[in-house]
Structure prediction request, 508 residues.
Amino acid sequence: MGEPLNVIFITADQWRGECLSALGHPSVRTPNLDALAKEAVTFSRHYANAVPCGPSRASLHTGMYLQNHRSGTNGTPLDARHTNWAKVVAKAGYDPVLFGYTDTSQDPREEDPESPWLRTYEGPLPGIRPVCMMGTWPTPWTDYLKANGYEVPDDIRYAYGHRASGPDYEDGAPHPKPLLYPQAEDDTAFLVNRLIDYIAAQREPFVAHLSLLRPHPPFVAPEPYNAMYDPASVPGFARCATPDEEGRQHPWLAHQLSRRLFRAPANEKKLRRLKAVYYGLMSEVDAEIGRLIHFVKERGLWEKTLIIFTSDHGEQMGDHWLLGKCGYFDASYRIPLIIRDPRPGGDKSRGKVVTSFTENVDIMPTMLEALRLDTPVQCDGKALTPFLSGDGAPRNWRTEAHWEFDFRDPADDAAEKALGLTLHQCTMNVIRDEKFKYIHFTKLPPLLFDLEKDPGEFVNRADDPAYQRVVLEYAQKMLSWRMNHDEQTLTHIALTDDGPVARRSARW
Prediction:
């Protein structure tokens, strides 16, 4: 059977998939992740299944599409009846631990009415043990800063972006303003230090989830990473000449661009500053992951530890005049994935780049299979083991990526009023392969992009007579996909005269 594996499962929040120098990005430098990739498998067409953080992580941790787990927005409770990878490994005898956050909105039916977890969407994943829990409120880190003599804002949420006074880059400064705290003391280094301390104390196999905030906003980096990339030299932005022109693509996009928090600033120097710092935060995360890997090797754990690096979603960063993560564009959903299986069976796959479509729902089955644990029926994804062993894509592997975006807001009916929708009609589904991307809205016009001719996703072909056959084909594909992935937890069981009879079947 072999020696039990350790697991280090790393997520870096809001990391666009192309932003690895190993994949040829023209600016971003990630030497430590590049070195990991040489000993691992890199998945270059890997996609999140939802945005923003809460829904995406619900898919990541349960292996379920949003249509099944139904935690569609930050704050929508995750139904307690669903299991997750932490519960499964805990049942097998591991102690799954958390450094960071999972943004899991707790099921109110399982909580005391006075529970603090009912006043935040940033609860812990059920089954996981928080060792150092940090989200919007970074209490462990800010307590550490105070104990070491650093100034901390009265509202500790602002510590992540705490900068010195003075002008910023767009106001004439030579570089973006740095974080007030030194790099060795910032939130990324702090969490990696806590994980290193934890690993150093372990005598049994461990499963640890390191969930880093960066490169998520606020886009403020410590020295020297604030000045690592010249804002004037970062790549430009894939967008129309004006937000109004951009918004003519679709009513939802026009509405989204009307929302100040999601529209990129008109000041291009400021936008370039944000992008340069975004890249700097990536390079800092890369350096800290390199430090963690160095420690794992020093402790003699390298050949005993499964390492998974991915993200929850991407970032528009000015493309299509948008900031943040939303909608249907690839920039919000394509994310990195690097997996190193230390066992000899993975030797022939080391350094390979997989171009098959993979999704975050595949992570839970992959981790469980590596630990020789059964994958729950609820999971919509499949283990990536064949790619890790060098066998390549199995027969019937998916030929497209799927994701969903739920833009309802129980606390704000602005989208409903602007678009003439009900709360439950504020949804879209996306299917994307090498040639086309089709977006279906519950009660808005569809979109179709010809990705071979229009990789930037600017020209909607849904009403073009020359593409009507394609629209029909992809609408049917999407319907079949949803039907095939309807929630199936008990559907393989029948109660008979002889008692329950079960026959599991592959999802696809």
User: Anything to note?
Assistant: The longest helix spans residues 268-298.
